[in-house]
Specification:
alpha/beta, 208 residues
Length: 208
Amino acid sequence: MTHPPLPSSPAAERNKQPILEVLARVLPAHGDALELAAGTGQHAAWFAAALTRWNWQPTEADARLLPVLARRVEAAGLPNLRAPLQLDATAPEWPLPAHAFDAIYCANMLHIAPWAACAGLMHGAARHLRAGGLLVTYGPYLEDAVPTAPGNLAFDADLRARDPAWGLRRLEDVAAEARRAGLALRERHAMPANNLLLVFGFSEAAAS
C-alpha cells in the first residue's frame, strides 16, 4: 500500500535547524524529552536524529494529526523516537508514563490555543519535569519593552479574527503563569523571523 506524501509545514522546515542549534546548547548531553503539539512531527524527527542520546516522546492534542505524526515517526525509523501519544495540555492529568522528563518542548502552540493552554502547559510541566529539568517554548511573543515587528502585529490580528481566544501572548504574562506553577524564565533567545525560544526551570522557591 502506497501512502500519500506526508504533510509538511514550511515554517517547521525552516526553523527546525535554528531551534536545534539552541537546544544543543541549553540541554544536557542526554535525557528524556516530551514534546507537546508535535503537529506533523518534523521537529521530533529532526531533533531525535541529531540528539541521539535523547529519547524523544512526541504528543499531539488533535486526533486528526496523530496518524500523520505516527507515519513520520515510522518513516524516521529512529530507536530514540517514541510512538506518538495524544495529549491535551489543558487536561488536569496528562496520560504519560510514570517517569519524569528531563526536558519538555512546545513550539507554536500558545498563540493558536486558548489562554488555558498556557496555564496547562506550565502546571503540567511542573508535574512531569524531573528536578533540574527544563521547559522550552518557541514561537512569536509580544514584549512590553521590545517593539513588535509589523509581521507579528499582522499575524496577531489575523489570529484574533479567526478565533478571539487566539493571539500572540505577552512574554510577561507567560512568565507570570510559569511563576504560578513554580517555574522561572531562565533564558530568552532571539530566533529568525521574529520568534523567541524561552527556557524555563524550577524556581529556587519551588526547588527548596
